[in-house]
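--- STAGE predict ---
source: upstream dedup step, 1 unique chain passed
mode: sequence only
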Amino acid sequence: MVDVVVNDEAATVRTFESTFQRILERNITMTAPHIVDPARMLSEALGDASPDLMRSLLQTLINALLSADADAVVGAEWGQASPDRLTQRNGYRHRPLDTRVGTVDVAIPKLRSGTYFPEWLLERRKRAESAMITVVADCYLAGVSTRRMDKLVKTLGIDGLSKSQVSRMAADLDEHVATFRHRPLGEAGPFTFVAADALTMKVREGGRVINAVVLVATGVNADGRREVLGLQVATSETAPAWNLFLADLVARGLTGVRLVTSDAHQGLVEAIAANLPGASWQRCRT
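--- STAGE serialize ---
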């Protein structure tokens, strides 16, 4: 997580509010629905508030793609006996890869004969990085699917992957995403300040464009460090939706909240009072 250490409580509030406001202003206003790119919005929000998460998920995705791509070059999957096998895997060579969310450890597979060079990553890095970060954010928002992973593989120009390989990569990423979404909040907390808001957007579902909202909460702990606490897609912004969302955060260990900033949505204000009874509420700038 990014360190944003400040010296006093008032400065923490100002830092927190201005940072969260910038995230919102870059992407969407809260007063009316807009067509937005939720993956771009979330990748920016997660990159700002939870860079460790983005680095971890990006590293997992890159190394899974490298392993699957190397299997295609070898002619058989890892540990699989096949008459089509051309050579054997022979460990990894590790190298740092600088990305917009920090440096990740890339494990490039080595072969016993011949060479493996991931041109799609090392020579077209900017394009590959952008595509993968978008997929990571999209998976966090909408869940991991084989179709989404297959589309990424084709975008990167990786050929020869089987459906089972793509499916396993999706399952691996899904496990990491689920771990983060349901992680306990007690270790990183207590979170002294929390900002809550709903991003209204239009999404395509079953050939129709419908309205949906993304409920998001970002927290700042006593050390001034901030992270995305939770995010949930709902059909509309209602008191029950906010109540379930905040109740889940509390169940995961959200404690010590002294101030919550949000808009003046009545259902949200009531949910804050019900789930965070010791916290003060302040209307955020819109």
